[in-house]
Amino acid sequence: MGKSSSSESEYDKAKRKYEEAIQQYTGESGYKTALNTAIGATKNLSNIASQGAIAQAQTGARQSGMSKAQAAMLGSQQGSTAYQNAFNNNISNQQNQAFTSNLNKVSALGSKVGQDFNKLTADRQNDYNNVSLGLGAAGTVLGLSDERLKNYKIISKKIKRSPNSLKVVIKEKGEED
Description:
85% of the residues lie in helices and 3% in strands. The chain is built from 4 helices and 2 strands. With 177 residues, it is mainly alpha-helical.
């Protein structure tokens, strides 16, 4: 029966993690978690796009004869526009990816809970079967009570075996051995 208690604690741990994941990754909390993840990822993408736009705009402006200040201003405007466009174009996609990933975590933990529950159920069934088998064996042993043994002795005294044959003869009352 030791198996059940260890399986039960595994089940309890998995269930607790599953419930924590539901709290963190679903509902409003899940929305906020996905949004924060998406903002971080989108900022990185937007920064890359912005830096590329700034460099391209400044190089183009300098080549067309603009001063360094004018090229810097143009690069700043282009960088800001590129950042905004990249952020707006990517935030929904990044948030959807983060939310899907979070729901997959919840689903995986739910599957683990199911597996641990099935293991716990199987362990408990095995424990039950072992106890039932033990009780059945004890019942068989108890079935050979003193009263039955007395009857066995009485019956075996009435049976006489011939030494030269397999013939069994029932002794009559008063007959000697």
